[in-house]
Design a protein that fits this description.
single chain, alpha/beta, Rossmann fold, five-stranded parallel beta sheet, 31% strand
């Protein structure tokens, strides 16, 4: 297994430190840089070309989505890390590999990195591919992106309408 490089983007020093601690416990992941705002994130992403970008949503000057627009993440997997669940759909719409809620749990982070490894290992075919992993009544289900017809958010839940059902 090759070592993945990671960029952490968060305006809170404690959050960066906590995520770095979680990542240090995961084999074959190395943090190469940290940024506290969108401009620094864009500069460091160009400089280091990380495999993984852990992006907070709330940043000074510009949010994580705006920061991402200034980054060529075509060879990276973006994993949003935030305290706000309501931005999840928007994160997946911009191509996020995963979405972690703070405080980031080690086991959940490991699953996100496994998904990122799978994504990075896939050849780029030029067509939209990938899956959305959802939890339904305690079971995990992977729904191919291309089969999703509608995402409907309501309260703390998201209804996913796809080719095989809801």
């Amino acid at each position: 297994m090759s070592t993945l490089t990671a960029l952490i983007v968060d305006d809170e020093p404690a959050a960066r430190r906590d995520l770095e601690e979680v990542l240090s416990s995961i084999e074959d992941v190395r943090v190469v840089a940290q940024a506290s705002d969108a401009a620094a994130a864009q500069h460091l992403a160009r400089r280091h070309r990380p495999d993984l970008i852990f992006m907070d949503i709330q940043l000074p000057g510009a949010d994580g989505f705006a920061a991402l627009r200034g980054i060529d993440a075509s060879q990276s997997c973006v994993i949003f890390t935030t305290a706000y669940a309501q931005f999840a759909i928007q994160a997946f719409e911009v191509g996020a590999t995963d979405y972690l809620l703070k405080p980031v749990e080690e086991e959940r982070c490991r699953r996100a990195i496994t998904r990122a490894r799978e994504t990075l290992a896939r050849p780029d075919t030029g067509e939209e591919s990938g899956t959305l992993e959802i939890e339904e009544r305690g079971a995990r289900l992977r729904v191919p992106f291309r089969s999703i017809r509608l995402l409907d958010a309501g309260g703390n839940y998201v209804e996913v309408v796809h080719e095989r059902g809801r």
